[in-house]
Amino acid sequence: MRPYDKKSHAVDYAMLRKTITIFQGDYDIIKQYAYSVNQSFSEAIRTLSVKQIQQQENEDLLSFLNNNCKFIDEYEQKEIDSKNLDYTNLNGFVKVEFTD
Prior knowledge:
Blueprint: H1 24-36, H2 41-58, H3 61-68, H4 74-81
């Protein structure tokens, strides 16, 4: 598997050698997985890491917010509600659209 780049999805880089610190139990799990899919430990780390990164980058906004952001507490919600904001009148707001 070639290194991943968000724009071109594959870039040729020189192979790097890095040292990581890992718990023995985690090492054993990854090593067993790598063996079962006929990969080296390093290749398993690379492929699993890239797959996880790509999956998180493709996650929709709502899922991302639900998984990574806390909801406001009751006090903050009461404060927002007390402002009597009219969400149907968006005059003065900027509409932002994203395209691929």
